Amino acid sequence: MCRAKGDSENSQHIGVVVSRACFCVGVFFIFMLLFNGVAMYASATRLEYGATRDFWVSVLRPLERPQDRQDTGKMAEQDI
Questions:
Q1: Is the pTM here over 0.70, yes or no?
Q2: CB neighbours of 41 closer than 8 A, spacing ≥ 6?
Q3: The pLDDT of residue 32 is above 50
Q4: Which domain holds residue 75?
């Protein structure tokens, strides 16, 4: 349990502040996108055709491309 600022000793604040929780969730999603962008892009391409699929494919396309270039470089080094 944590105490909110300005609370007296008798009243207790259970949980976390909303802004801190939103920040933590945002950090989680940023790391998820950075480390798993290729899989998220592949998953978006498997959605039903329509506006939702088009939106997610266009949003995730920049995350998929740099990782694809890195993988291609690794494969070229292994062939040598």
A1: no
A2: 57, 60, 61, 63, 64
A3: yes
A4: 18-79
